Amino acid sequence: MNTLGEDIRQTLDELKYLLGDADRRLQTFLCDIAKNKRHIHTHSYAESRAMALGYRQEIALLTKRLSSRDESVTRDTQEYLRTHQTLFGALITMTDWQSPSYTHTLASQAGRETGRIYATMNDYKRDQHWDAYRYEQAFLKENIDVLIKFPVHVHATSSGMAAFTTILLFLLGEKKATGKVLCGTSVYFENKALITQLFADQLIIVDESDTKKIIKSIDTYHPSVIFLDSLTNTPDVVVPDLSRVIRHLLSAKKETHLVIDNTGLSIRFQPFPILFGRRTNLRLIQFESLNKYHQFGMDRVTGGIIAALGGDTGKLFDYRAHAGTNITDVGAASLPTPNRSILAKRLTRHSRNAAFLARALKTWIHEHPNSPFTGISFPGVGSYFTIKFKKRYNTIPSYRRFVKLSLAAAKRYNINVVSGTSFGLNTTRIYLTALRSKPNTPFVRIAVGTEHIHALQSLRDALIETLKRFR
């Protein structure tokens, strides 16, 4: 377990990176508009330049203040970055056009991108644009482990669900789902709803916790498409043995597409090295939401990312364009530049905090067999776990009462806890999940934040008090 000092240093390193990254992006913007000054309206140029310089001054001041290690300065900096994330993106794209010109007589209509727009290639941002491309290349470089990068196709989308629907359109449009379709029973509920509707007659449901049965189903049905999550987000939180499944699929006798939702584990699961360089019929498509870990807790823009290798998965680019699921220029320009080292430390802290709380609650439940609880579902990795209730208490009113008691206890311990969806944020969230997503079963999930060790200990005490009080 890290000391308080180590937690503070890690937080400061993350904030310094995010401030520095924002400053570098603003500096690039200033260089771009200076280069194309004559193609930008005089007032717009002066205003955007002044705004960028002003933001850079604010960033410099915040960076200097962080050296004080004052907790209030840390909170101020986190809030500044969160509230200014989309302001930076809006400013960077301020002089742009959604349909930029590629040539002109007197003045272009491409703003800072003048000279970098090519006819029928990137002259319509719904199809593709430079901000998405830069983010994709940075994501590939930092977050995808593979010996040679260029065979992996990376495409940013407007959300994680947009990434998934783009993949579905590719599979359907290219007639990839010709045989049986395997789907994990705990695949994310919105994805599963679409899979069930589109492939109802072909669908085989498998239990992610039983790798032998998954492999047996593969050998029995020879599926053309397989859908699995790297970390499930259901009452039973499971980490399927995807590495073993992928190795088994390398010898598939026909083309097989494995689609992995990697939102839960992100960079902690790296499937491409298993596949890379092998002559195989396996096609690997991985996607994840950019709303969770990749915004470092800021939660201000939606986004998704697809990474694919093998066969004609490069066609995903065309399906993204045809479906209109590309990430917006403002969205891409708002996202922090990917940084593997900083993200890895954040994920480690999330997992540490989740493990600390899950272990404490599990121990208390084990020592109190007559309590209303049966256990905790936490696989040892990830940023969230679920509370398991005895049958009598498996009701929505009971779940709501537990959430209410938890918030009240946290308030008494002077710990900020919120009730809301999502995970990967700075503050712990206690949430009644899947309440209106029939036929899925609602459950109580605790998505742990990046609190430092002292706050975490207080949160543990508050949650144990909740376990004691709940009846």
Labels describing this entry:
alpha/beta; seven-stranded mixed sheet; four-stranded antiparallel sheet; 3 domains; Aspartate Aminotransferase, domain 1
Describe this structure in words.
The chain is of the alpha/beta class and 471 residues long. It contains 14 helices and eleven strands. The strands form two sheets. It has a seven-stranded mixed β-sheet, sandwiched between helices. Strands 8-9-11-10 form a four-stranded antiparallel β-sheet, covered by helices on one side. Strand 8 and strand 9 form a beta hairpin. The longest helix is centred in the first third of the chain and has 32 residues, at 4-35. The radius of gyration is 24 Å and the shape is globular. The protein starts with a helix and ends with a helix. The model has no long low-confidence stretch (mean pLDDT 96).
Itemize the secondary structure elements and their pairings.
Elements (H helix, E strand, L loop, with lengths): L3 H32 L6 H25 L4 H22 L37 H14 L9 E5 L2 H14 L7 E4 L4 H10 L4 E4 L4 H11 L3 E5 L12 H8 L6 E6 L10 H4 L6 E8 L14 E6 L6 H8 L5 H6 L5 H28 L5 E5 L6 E6 L6 H17 L16 E5 L9 E5 L5 H17 L2
Parallel strand pairs: 2-3, 2-4, 4-5, 5-6
Antiparallel strand pairs: 1-7, 6-7, 8-9, 9-11, 10-11
Helix pairs in contact: 1-2, 1-3, 1-12, 2-3, 5-10, 7-8, 12-14, 13-14
